[in-house]
């Protein structure tokens, strides 16, 4: 590939690679939460699609260099870069993912003129960011409602409670993984890509996208209903009862074929009603304000380089010798653990110093409830959350826990995240989980709760 002939392609690719290198810890988090997650199994294709889109921009002359530096975009780059530093220090996943993407887009338009065509390849990266998990619960609820209605059309006795569907042969759980989110993400990615490449009008884009998203939802509903029917007919002996992930994709294939059929019809309609307009995008690399471009790159590297977020300034030594406690919560990635026993009460402090993005009190797998125990009751008691837990052997314990920073304690993770964001302005990334436990002689009563709460 001739570097001079394909200068736009190489600049676009270089910007993206620079962004990846400057935000290496965030790229690692994307690998763990997107590429290693079955819901985002399409993520492996996204980088190749983006490279191809860069090539299309070059071939169709949709991208143009700026002739002079854009102060608004440079200001937006500085703001998004600074926001990325703060959100990375505060370790708030959704915010640093969003700030990272905003930094990349801002950098691109400090170098290129803004247009939707140039924006699209960078915006397409949103399909590998784990933003979409927020849709899982509402899609799950919608699936339960629709499946209940569809099962009412069959002669199979069905009882639905929350996300559990009970039939004579067994019980099905419409969990978050059965929400249809994976089909929605893939359909949104395919439809947006098809619109970018082939459709020209807003009306056609809306029609095609609506058909694609509706097809994704219908695919998931048919998959769940079919599994329930198959489970009923086979007395839960079908292999699909344990391995049903691929089953949905088999249903999705005819739905996808229908989507592309609709897309082809929309293309033909546009060809009849619209005239092809060619845009003269004859621009030269020499038109780029080199000083402006270099300034934008420098700001991006300095502000968004999350590689430099941790400088080893924290002392990772515990202030007390960790002791082995017979029952511990499920807390991960702590930089230090301080455990003590005072009378009948065991107390543990898990400290985090922000040594990596997942070394935080709000890590999604952290739970104050020990493995094998079930929450029986919970309440707020002064400055502590209190929980009564029990296991199948009849053992019951009273637990108290709260979250903290170097400055204050909090009852909820939302309050902790707000505090971490504010503390990032002080370059302080420390947080902790304070956890206390006592054994109940019989059923946990108020005296046990008062004993575990200092």
Q: Would you give an account of this structure?
A:
The protein folds into two domains: 7-137 and 175-308, no CATH class; 336-452, no CATH class. Strand 8 (396-404) and strand 9 (409-410) form a beta hairpin. Strands 4, 5, 6, 7, 8, 9 and 10 form a seven-stranded antiparallel sheet that branches. It starts with 6 loop residues before the first helix and ends with a helix. Mean pLDDT is 82; it is low at 276-319. It contains 13 helices and ten strands. The protein has 454 residues and is α+β, with helices and mostly antiparallel strands. It has helices at residues 7-22, 24-35, 46-59, 71-90, 93-111, 116-123, 136-151, 181-198, 202-233, 245-273, 290-304, 413-424, 446-452; strands spanning 159-161, 164-167, 170-173, 336-342, 345-352, 374-381, 384-390, 396-404, 409-410, 431-439. One of its GO terms (biological process) is proteolysis. It is a multi-pass membrane protein. GO terms for molecular function: peptidase activity. Pfam families: Exosortase_EpsH (PF09721).
